Amino acid sequence: MYYKMSNIKVEKILGSRRLSNYWWATIIFCGGLSFFLVGLSAYLHKQLIPSIKYTTLVFLPQGAIMTFYGTVGILISIFLWYTIILNIGSGYNEFNNDKGIITIFRLGFPGNNRILKLKYNTNEIYSIKVVIEEGLSVKREIYLKMKDKREIPLTKVGQPLSLSKLEDQAVNIAKFLDLKVEGIS
């Protein structure tokens, strides 16, 4: 999503608050809780889940393993919910032609590096670079290529953009900043 104000262009970056993360955090929590309760049922010799018969499950080794897997599942889901609540990875890319500054802002985990705010002068930028790698692990990214050969990623993490959207986005940024585009043939 872009917002354009005269000579300022802002691109919002979606962080952890995406539908797939809500889905997986919920599914992993439900599965982990189920495994944990089944293991606990075997240990207590009480039926904690009505549809599971504890008499067929011995605590050692099956019940202990179920309790372990359940605990791990619950901990992973807590971590996922934590990243969703904190909206890790969200932020914006701001291209300001008035001041000649590009700002890349992202939220991270709490601590000294919770807020990542990088600023670059537009005269330090050589080009906009597009990287497209097809295969098992698809990679479609846009980078700011600096004159000192550094490459700063601009695209969000998650589902790769379609080729047409990626190319349009790169061309729009390049036109706005009056730069050339590399990697598009």
Automatic annotation (TrEMBL):
Its main location: membrane. The keyword Transmembrane helix applies. Belongs to the Ycf4 family. InterPro entries: PSI_Ycf4_assembly. Seems to be required for the assembly of the photosystem I complex. It comes from the Eukaryota. The chain crosses the membrane at residues 21-44, 64-85. The keyword Transmembrane applies. This is Photosystem I assembly protein Ycf4. HAMAP family: Ycf4. It is found in: Cellular thylakoid membrane; Membrane. Keywords: Membrane, Photosynthesis, Plastid, Thylakoid, Transmembrane, Transmembrane helix. One of its GO terms (cellular component) is photosystem I. It is a multi-pass membrane protein. One of its GO terms (biological process) is photosynthesis.
